[in-house]
Amino acid sequence: MANRFLLPLAVLVLICGCLAAPVRAQAQRGRSVYDMRAERLGPLRLGMAARDAARNLPCRPVVGRERLEGATGEYVQEWRLPDCGLTIKMSGPRRSGPKTVAAVTATAPCRLVTSRGVGVGADEAAVAAAYGRFKDEDGLSAPGRTFLVGSIYGGLVFSLAEGRVTRLFLGAGAE
Q1: Which of 162, 133, 2, 153 is nearest to 170 (CA)?
Q2: CA angle 113, 115, 116 (to 5 degrees)
Q3: CA of 10: how far to CAs of 2, 7, 19, 20, 23, in Å?
Q4: CB contact at 8 A, 136 and 150
Q5: How crowded is residue 84: how many other Cβ atoms within 10 Å of its Cβ?
Q6: What dihedral angle (degrees, nearest 10) is formed by the CA atoms of 122, 62, 70, 138?
Q7: For a disulfide at 90, which of 5, 99, 133, 167, Cβ 3.0-4.6 Å?
Q8: What is the C-alpha separation between 154 and 143, in angstroms, rounded?
Q9: Other Cβ atoms closer than 10 A to 134
């Protein structure tokens, strides 16, 4: 009987150890780990129910067709708000079922800001001041072009041009 539980327990311990390795490595390099659950863009946050997001949007969305996303197995829908400079990816486990915010992309003329007060048009120094200690040096970050907080598997990506934020992405850029 005990053997029946040992293998699943060993697998769980192995998985937890693998998931914790990037966090330990980042901490060993002296960088802080950013808690993405606390991040927002204006009123929008990852995991927020679609109905709650819709109530808080500054513009009316154009809702795209639902499709199955092979990488995640989720049913996704794109909400475009061109007048507000927003695109929101909604995701859920069932076709026509409830969805939650899976990603948010902001471009001009978006005026929404992150939980640390950075938005489209902010200068690179403001991004560094707000998020510098959480910057992912090993991944996508490239001085003057991209500033990544967290990771591409769940983070905040600031795209830069001429020293200013031109695009802001909150979510998973890779599965």
Answers
A1: 153
A2: 85
A3: 12, 5, 14, 15, 21
A4: yes
A5: 19
A6: 0
A7: 99
A8: 20
A9: 20
Q: Does residue 64 contact residue 77 with C-beta atoms inside 8 Å?
A: yes
pLDDT of residue 165: 98
Pair of tokens at residue 140: 């996508």
For 116, the token pair is 């640390």
What's the Rg (C-alpha) of the chain? 18
Helix and strand counts by DSSP (H, E) for the chain: 3, 8
Helix then strand then coil, in percent of the chain rounded to 5, is 30, 35, 40
- pLDDT at residue number 88: 98
| 68 sits in which H/E element | strand 67-69
Single pTM value for the model:
0.79
Ranges under pLDDT 70 in the chain:
1-32, 139, 175
pLDDT, tens digit, 9 for 90 and up, residues 30-66: 456 788 888 999 999 999 999 999 999 989 999 999 9
Q: Would you say 89 and 125 are in contact if contact means Cβ atoms under 8 Å apart? A: no
